[in-house]
């Protein structure tokens, strides 16, 4: 079975080649950390490497070696066999169920039999995604090889990976994914496949409440953020953090929490919905609760 092949591997965790689907801020960050750690993404990767060289954390030769490990695949990469040797793939496209389902069915059809299919989803059910991992040629399900592998932005800095088994996930697949996340230098927590997992079940209602406080006139945005920053030692206030994550992402996660639990405590703030409708998506669009002049390097997907 794919699982037994994996456990017979001579590598520590058997993961040598990794594919990342999605070239937004999460996809590029994951590629960067994976490439950096795999033996002891692309203008943006150069920028990140340039910074490390400048700080003296890496010399030019090491930076070139890391860069050479990242290869951009073509649009048809899966069909064209460019992923033929991949051991683990991390899907990091936007939070759209239909898009992710299509990708999982393509991955199940084209990846080598032993490969692990991981998703960086922040709120979509892994059991639902796993159910779409069906090899289109044989009709066989690869649900047992699907696992949630949730990173945090900025990926090179944040030390956590949240691991989420689908109901279908093989234990050995879960353990291999855990080992690989640890090899990437991350600490791992494990969550059941419930809406928002641990992280966003707690973070998003907190951010949403800050937006409701703003919309109901409790305080100015600056005072809300400063209170949490200086009063609770948060690195960013909740409204700044919402802009950093993307207001569309915050709204879509609140909508998943609300829809899947039916609990009104997860009602997204009206202001949040209006801002997304207006195209005020936070840092990536230049306008959110705050105004940003410089655009970030990677384009949104
Ligand atoms: N990529 C790579 N490295 C970055 C970076 C980026 N985008 N942004 C900052 N860094 C690095 C800097 O180079 C610096 O590295 P150094 O210590 O080696 O010099 C270090 O991070 C600190 O950066 P700065 O001094 O410029 O800035 P701050 O000290 O203000 O830290 C921050 C910036 C790390 C972003 C900090 O404000 C922070 O931790 N904010 C909260 C982030 C957070 O909560 N993220 C999780 C969001 S939720 C999520 O992603 C899940 C999803 O499902 C919603």
From TrEMBL:
GO terms for molecular function: NAD+ binding; oxidoreductase activity, acting on the CH-OH group of donors, NAD or NADP as acceptor. The record marks 150 as: Important for catalytic activity. The keyword Membrane does not apply. Keywords: Oxidoreductase. Residues 17-192 form the 3-hydroxyacyl-CoA dehydrogenase NAD binding domain. Residues 196-292 form the 3-hydroxyacyl-CoA dehydrogenase C-terminal domain. One of its GO terms (biological process) is fatty acid metabolic process. Belongs to the 3-hydroxyacyl-CoA dehydrogenase family. This is 3-hydroxybutyryl-CoA dehydrogenase. It comes from Rhodotorula toruloides (strain NP11) (Yeast). The lineage of its organism: Eukaryota, Fungi, Dikarya, Basidiomycota, Pucciniomycotina.
């Amino acid at each position: 079975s794919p699982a037994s092949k994996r456990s017979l591997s001579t590598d520590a965790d058997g993961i040598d080649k990794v594919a990342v689907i999605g070239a937004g801020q999460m996809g590029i960050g994951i590629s960067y950390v994976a490439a950096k750690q795999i033996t002891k993404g692309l203008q943006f990767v150069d920028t990140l490497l340039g910074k490390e060289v400048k700080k003296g954390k890496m010399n030019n030769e090491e930076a070139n070696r890391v860069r050479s490990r990242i290869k951009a695949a073509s649009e048809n990469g899966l069909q064209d066999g460019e992923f033929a040797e991949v051991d683990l793939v991390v899907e990091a496209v936007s939070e759209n169920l239909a898009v992710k389902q299509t990708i999982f069915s393509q991955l199940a059809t084209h990846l080598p039999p032993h490969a692990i299919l991981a998703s960086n989803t922040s709120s979509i059910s892994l059991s639902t995604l796993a159910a779409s991992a069906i090899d289109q040629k044989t009709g066989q399900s690869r649900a047992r090889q699907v696992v949630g592998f949730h990173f945090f932005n900025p990926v090179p800095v944040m030390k956590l990976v949240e691991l989420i088994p689908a109901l279908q996930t093989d234990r050995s697949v879960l353990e291999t994914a855990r080992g690989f996340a640890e090899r990437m230098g991350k600490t791992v927590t494990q969550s059941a496949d419930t809406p928002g997992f641990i992280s966003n079940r707690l973070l998003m209602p907190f951010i949403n409440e800050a937006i409701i406080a703003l919309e109901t006139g409790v305080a100015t945005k600056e005072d809300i953020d400063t209170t949490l920053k200086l009063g609770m030692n948060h690195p960013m206030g909740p409204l700044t953090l919402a802009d950093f994550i993307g207001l569309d992402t915050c709204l879509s996660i609140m909508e998943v929490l609300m829809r899947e639990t039916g609990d009104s405590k997860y009602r997204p703030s009206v202001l949040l919905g209006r801002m997304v409708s207006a195209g005020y998506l936070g840092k990536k669009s230049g306008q959110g609760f705050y105004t940003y002049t410089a655009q970030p390097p990677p384009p949104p997907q």
